[in-house]
Specification:
The structure holds 2 protein chains of 2 kinds.
Chain A: H1 3-34, H2 38-51, H3 55-61, H4 67-75, H5 84-97, H6 104-120, H7 130-151, H8 156-179, H9 197-206, H10 210-217, H11 223-232, H12 240-258, H13 263-275, H14 280-286, H15 288-309
Chain B: H1 6-20, H2 38-46, H3 49-66, E1 70-71, E2 80-81, E3 85-92, H4 94-118, H5 123-126, H6 133-136, E4 158-165, E5 171-177, H7 184-197, H8 201-204, H9 213-222, E6 235-238, H10 247-257, E7 260-262, E8 267-270, E9 273-278, E10 281-284, E11 287-290, H11 313-318, E12 323-325, H12 336-339, H13 342-350, E13 362-363, H14 367-375, E14 380-384, E15 394-395, H15 401-413, E16 418-422, E17 428-433, E18 436-445, E19 447-451, E20 454-457, E21 462-466, E22 480-487
Parallel strand pairs in B: 3-22, 6-7, 6-11, 11-12
Antiparallel strand pairs in B: 1-2, 4-5, 4-19, 8-9, 9-10, 13-16, 14-15, 14-16, 17-18, 18-21, 19-20, 21-22
Helix pairs in contact in B: 4-13
The chains are: A mainly alpha, B alpha+beta.
């Protein structure tokens, strides 16, 4: 496979994941804002913008935070160079570039989703339809993943696609968690004190984990439980542990296909040593924020190494 | 309710005949279905109106979903358009096709011999049959191809010959596309679409298959691999990238051929070979089916300021270690001034009279011709000798007075840059409209593959059709559409 094609597969799925995560973040923010007073709602929307990493761009355009302004900015405005419409455009552009390496089902799923979304996002989104648009984005992700699952050869390209998915997903979960870390109270001494359950419900919703979490924890929301769930529970498909496990499998498969390991496999091993055997106590001892920062740095380094090992660009 | 076909079409057709006197491929002057369309029209008359209307919409949707689009140059880069597809096939009988293929084969043989000669001894110029200035003024002429023979002696591996029809036996060559003919993906996708829309139709009418074109192309290209290629040659399709208007076709062909789709940035010259950057290192490429212009092949040879292209590829080529299809410098024969000499060229290299005539052409470089053209601008079609895609031309009968006046000035300033042709009354074939069938003008581009093993013509081609009533411009960039092209089995 061409290095450029591997790069296209990897980024196609990173952007797809990013679009989907952004939609989830928005969904959770909206639910939160709807149930709060105006001032809290304003703070919520600010946090949604900050979590998506668009604070500077947003504040260059607007002075205040209102729902409609925020979701239009995140979904479609040109002032935001990484709006969801652009992300989906990047998914399709990469899919076009790797067209000969994906099945026509996968291409069809991407192209159809893009047509639908691009058309919908060409006009401002009002409060009555924003929910539909968010569902549309989530469905787009599902339909592409479904096509990959059911109709794509498990070759190199597949593993690059999956590696892109899990690198992006791990980063997204870590960032969402990090944005709220100050609420988690950085020491174990505070475990058990009452938390703003609404805030935590939102974090869980934005990673599609609310019901899974309740089911596992009988509805008890506490810092320990949530960190354990989002970082260490390898049964939950958006936890950091799950993403790492999945990434390890796909990097190992790539090494096997190529008959040799690369820098990315070595970094993966080091990362495993860090997270294996880790407990919630260890994380709180280190401080959640600092743990997450080093996790994100490691994740980024693995991503870069994949690109270098497999000649994405040179 | 049946869609109006013969009766209604007759009415429409009747008017058309009165106004422009052209040959209709479906109906004869008495309104009788011509033999080629007999089986099809029987089938058509049995189809309920609603079904056909719905199918027409489905087809559009299906093209959009599969992403068969082209970008229009000069418009917003992101804009992609569909080439409209018309679901009434264009039908050619086995007998007509046999005659056409003989003419096409002769012409393509002559083209190759001509290109070889131009880049070697130039016998045709020495013999006084072609003025030397045509080479000097030709941008596509490549001095560094002189004296070099491409692998297998083939210059034009893939050729598209544009034909127009004016009568039962009157086919003319309008244009030779020896550089990089496009549109073959539409030939293939149009057939696929027709077969999925109307599966029963193909059990009623015996139509020659076109679907093995990509395999024939792969085989033909492999047969042109450089001497000394070990094992199965590695074939790559070289595309300018996803923003090119024909990108869909490049990806489609690579996919169907099982070839790698590369961009120039994937390739580099290592150890005297062209190699592509793969995830596990560099791999040799033996045959490059390039869909980029000569200028973007090698910055070292063609354009030192360009960052595009593969530095040093021309050295590898000249050392005989890679095949480039079509060969650099082939575009020289697409020039419309050269076209006007094609009858002489065919005769010079084959020793035979051309089986397929040219459209009568006045070279404005000749004083007498120029005078005639200037006197008759309102009746003629005037084209730039290097132009393509229907741009830079004047269609006298439909141009405004002002357009004619402006064109006259351009023509007088630089007559060598133009040729003129009579406005042909191109044949028509009906398209499907909301009101029923309506005649529209069309042309035909069959695709020809050339290798040391011979000349291979796929039975079919790309039929382009003007969608506007009375329009003679069929180019997709100017609102033309396409039709499935059927060659009937004997």
């Amino acid at each position: 496979m061409l290095g450029r094609t591997a790069n296209g597969m990897f980024w196609m799925f990173r952007y797809l994941e990013r679009a989907e995560n952004t939609a989830r973040l928005l969904d959770a923010g909206m639910r939160m804002a709807l149930t709060r007073d105006a001032e809290t709602a304003q703070a919520e929307w600010r946090s949604v913008i900050a979590t998506s990493g668009q604070r500077a761009a947003y504040e260059a355009e607007y002075d205040d935070y209102t729902g409609q302004q925020v979701w239009n900015f995140i979904l479609r405005e040109r002032a935001n160079p990484s709006n969801v419409r652009e992300m989906f455009g990047a998914v399709r552009m990469n899919a076009r570039m790797v067209r000969t390496n994906i099945s026509s089902e996968v291409w069809g799923a991407v192209n159809e989703s893009w047509m639908e979304l691009d058309e919908r996002l060409s006009r401002p989104i009002g409060p009555n339809v924003v929910g539909d648009v968010i569902s549309m984005i989530r469905r787009a992700g599902m339909s592409v993943h479904g096509a990959v699952e059911g109709a794509m050869l498990r070759n190199e390209g597949y593993h690059f696609a999956r590696a892109g998915t899990f690198i992006e997903r791990a980063e997204s979960t870590a960032r969402i968690l990090d944005m709220k870390y100050y609420l988690l109270l950085p020491s174990l001494g505070h475990v058990g004190s009452s938390l703003d359950t609404g805030q935590w419900d939102q974090v869980l919703r934005s990673v599609a984990g609310a019901s899974a979490y309740s089911w596992l924890n009988a509805g008890n929301i506490d810092a320990r439980g949530i960190v354990e769930f989002l970082v260490l529970d390898d049964r939950f498909p958006r936890s950091l542990a799950f993403c790492r496990n999945a990434l390890r499998v796909h990097l190992a498969a790539l090494a096997k296909i190529h008959g040799a390991e690369g820098e990315c496999n070595e970094l993966m091993r080091q990362a495993d040593m860090e997270i294996n055997e880790l407990t919630v106590e260890d994380i709180f001892d280190e401080g959640l924020h600092s743990f997450l920062l080093s996790f994100i740095a490691r994740n980024t380094a693995i991503g870069t190494a994949i690109g270098e090992d497999y000649r994405f660009l040179a | 309710m049946l869609l109006p076909s013969i009766a209604a079409y007759d009415a429409i057709h009747g008017e058309t005949v009165l106004s422009s006197d052209n040959f209709d491929e479906m109906y004869d002057e008495a309104g009788e279905t011509r033999p080629a369309y007999k089986d099809y029209c029987e089938w058509y008359d049995e189809q309920p109106t609603d079904l056909l209307k719905r199918k027409a919409k489905d087809a559009d949707e299906s093209f959009r979903r599969t992403g068969i689009t082209f970008n229009v140059y000069g418009e917003d880069e992101a804009e992609e358009r569909l080439i409209p597809f018309d679901m009434v096939p264009r039908i050619i009988t086995a007998n007509e096709w046999r005659k056409l293929t003989r003419g096409i084969e002769q012409r393509v043989r002559a083209l190759n011999a001509f290109l070889y000669d131009l880049y070697h001894r130039q016998e045709i110029i020495r013999a006084g049959r072609l003025p030397e200035r045509l080479l000097r003024n030709n941008d596509a002429w490549l001095p560094n191809m002189v004296g070099f023979t491409p692998p297998g002696g083939i210059y034009t591996h893939i050729v598209g010959i544009d034909l127009v029809r004016t009568g039962p036996d009157e086919f003319f060559v309008l244009e030779d596309n020896a550089r990089t003919p496009s549109g073959v993906s539409y030939m293939l996708e149009n057939r696929e679409t027709m077969m999925s829309m109307f599966p029963d139709l193909f059990s009623r009418v015996a139509v020659e298959s076109v679907s093995n074109y990509p395999r024939r192309l792969a085989r033909s290209l492999a047969a042109c691999a450089p001497d000394g290629t070990i094992g199965q040659p590695n074939v790559a399709v070289l595309t300018p990238g996803i923003y090119n208007s024909a990108y869909f076709e490049h990806a489609f062909l690579a996919d169907q051929m099982g070839a790698v789709l590369v961009e120039a940035s994937d390739l580099r010259v290592v150890n005297g070979r062209v190699q592509m950057r793969c995830t596990d290192g560099y791999k040799q490429v033996d045959v490059i089916y390039r869909r980029v212009d000569d200028d973007y092949l090698d910055p070292l040879t063609f354009n030192p300021n360009s960052v595009l292209g593969i530095p040093g590829i021309m050295d590898v080529y000249r050392a005989g270690n890679v095949t480039i299809a079509n060969a650099p410098g082939t575009g020289v024969s697409d020039d419309k001034a050269i076209y006007s000499f094609m009858p002489e060229i065919v005769e010079f290299y084959t020793g035979e009279k051309p089986l397929l005539p040219n459209v009568q052409t006045w070279r404005c470089a000749d004083a007498d011709s120029l005078a005639y053209v200037l006197d008759n601008l309102e009746e003629l079609v005037v084209k730039e000798v290097h132009g393509s895609g229907g741009y830079g031309m004047l269609i006298g009968p439909t141009a405004t007075k002002r357009e004619v006046k402006e064109f006259r000035a351009k023509l007088e300033a630089n007559p060598e840059n133009y040729i003129a042709q009579p406005t042909l009354s191109l044949s028509t074939c009906p398209i499907f409209t909301k009101k029923g069938l309506a005649p529209r003008h069309l042309d035909l581009r069959p695709f020809v593959l050339v290798s040391p093993n011979g000349i291979d013509i796929t039975p079919g081609g790309l039929t382009r059709v003007a969608l506007k009533e009375g329009s003679l411009v069929v180019n997709s960039s100017q609102g033309g559409g396409t039709k499935d092209t059927w060659v009937l089995k004997d």
